[in-house]
Design goal:
- By secondary structure, the chain is α/β, with parallel strands linked by helices.
- The protein is built from 7 helices and 7 strands; from the N terminus they run H-E-H-H-H-H-E-H-E-H-E-E-E-E.
- It has one domain.
- Helix 7 links the parallel strand 3 and strand 4.
- Helix 1 packs across helix 5 and helix 5 crosses helix 6.
- The chain is globular.
């Protein structure tokens, strides 16, 4: 199935999210259903998921829950990739999963297909699913050039994961981070502003202040 317009693609797969404080759009899923590692970490004191923002505020509204449900079901179908390719188009910056995560390896493969078909877009994918990334690298060698995967640390003030030099992210509780570049969005009311470091795979680690 091909989609001639973005309107047709949206009608099929559901809308892209449009985070007001980021430079581009994103694809979101319901965190508890699609982030199994995060669900476990949410019960661990001191983990980055113990007070997950994706389980609060607007993410709990019925409209958001319904949108996430539609998006999740469409990712399991045969034509979702084509819809995403049409919707993303030439967006300069795109984020995968402002909420949610890679719930299966086959889902990761579909995302990679979308990324390869949108070379004008710079993609950023934070994830706890390092085993899926490790498996992809073993089977395919490298990630697409226009994708930056950031493996997420499990614990606040913890060390970043290590998988074949893949970029990472950590969370620091106060002051300056003990490793990598500090995210400065909190100085701009949570907005990225002109910063695009998260999309830059040459920056090995970015540390976000706890919030």
């Amino acid at each position: 199935m091909e989609f001639a317009t973005k309107k047709q693609a949206v009608a099929f797969s559901g809308t892209l999210a449009n985070p007001s404080k980021m430079p581009g759009k994103s694809w979101d899923l319901e965190a508890r259903e699609t982030c199994p590692i995060g669900a476990k970490l949410s019960k661990v004191a001191g983990s980055v998921c113990a007070s997950c923002y994706a389980s609060k505020g607007q993410y709990k509204f019925k409209k958001a829950i319904n949108a996430h449900s539609i998006r999740l079901e469409k990712t399991k179908g045969d034509h979702w990739q084509n819809a995403m390719i049409t919707m993303i188009g030439a967006e300069p910056y795109f984020r995968w999963h402002d909420s949610g995560d890679l719930y299966s390896y086959s889902y990761l493969l579909k995302i990679i297909e979308v990324i390869k078909a949108t070379p004008e877009s710079r993609h950023w994918m934070p994830t706890h699913q390092k085993d899926f990334i490790r498996r992809y690298l073993k089977e395919h060698g490298t990630l697409p050039d226009n994708l930056t995967v950031r493996l997420s640390s499990a614990m606040i003030d913890g060390k970043p994961p290590t998988v074949d030099n893949i970029a990472t992210s950590t969370v620091h509780s106060k002051g300056s981070p003990h490793i990598g570049h500090a995210c400065t969005a909190n100085m701009r009311g949570g907005s990225c502003g002109n910063c695009r470091k998260c999309w830059n795979s040459k920056i090995q680690n970015i540390s976000y202040p706890q919030h």
